[in-house]
Design goal:
Elements (H helix, E strand, L loop, with lengths): L1 H8 L42 H22 L5 H7 L6 H21 L4 E4 L3 E4 L2 H8 L7 H12 L6 H12 L1
Helix pairs in contact: 2-4, 4-7, 6-7
Length: about 180
């Protein structure tokens, strides 16, 4: 309430941090804001039940994956050896840890925040995928040039035949 008044009072001086181009796409189901009673995610539900154990499990899976990867790098103190431990060509174990633990954990975490479906003008209901988070987050802009380039490369490889494979490749590229 008070921040909205402040933003209205100083709208000439403060930049609009939430312009239309910066708002999340429709398929993203944002957590409800405590100050608002209606949200696009809440429109069909009068009460949201959050399974905290399930949410903790999502975070724990990411933490476990990170711990395993950090432990992999902790097998040596030599910087040259550590660099080799991070190269999946030289040390396939790091690739295994990323593909088996980190990628699924991040995919599940991203999927948890998405609506199940979004309406598409051409095909009707379209199932939301975590890859759509990557797609929306990497639109070409001054601060996203490198991410957009990585997204484009992951999108162009014909060997990456589904969204999960593209997401895995994108995560590998980020690492």
């Amino acid at each position: 309430g008070q921040s909205a008044k402040l933003q209205q009072s100083y709208s000439d001086f403060l930049p609009d941090y939430f312009s239309l181009t910066e708002k999340p796409p429709e398929e993203f189901c944002l957590s409800p804001d405590a100050s608002t009673s209606s949200s696009s995610c809440l429109s069909s539900q009068s009460h949201i039940s959050v399974d905290l154990m399930q949410k903790r499990g999502l975070v724990k899976a990411v933490n476990t994956a990170v711990d395993l990867i950090v432990a992999h790098f902790g097998t040596s103190r030599d910087p040259d050896v550590k660099a080799k431990l991070g190269n999946s060509w030289v040390s396939p174990n790091v690739g295994h840890l990323i593909l088996k633990y980190l990628c699924p954990a991040l995919r599940d975490l991203l999927q948890d925040g998405l609506k199940a479906y979004v309406l598409d003008l051409i095909i009707g209901q379209r199932r939301c995928q975590p890859w759509s988070v990557v797609e929306a987050s990497t639109q070409l802009g001054p601060s996203t040039r490198v991410l957009h380039s990585l997204f484009s490369k992951a999108s162009q490889f014909s060997e990456l035949t589904n969204h999960n494979m593209r997401l895995n490749a994108f995560i590998f590229g980020l690492l």
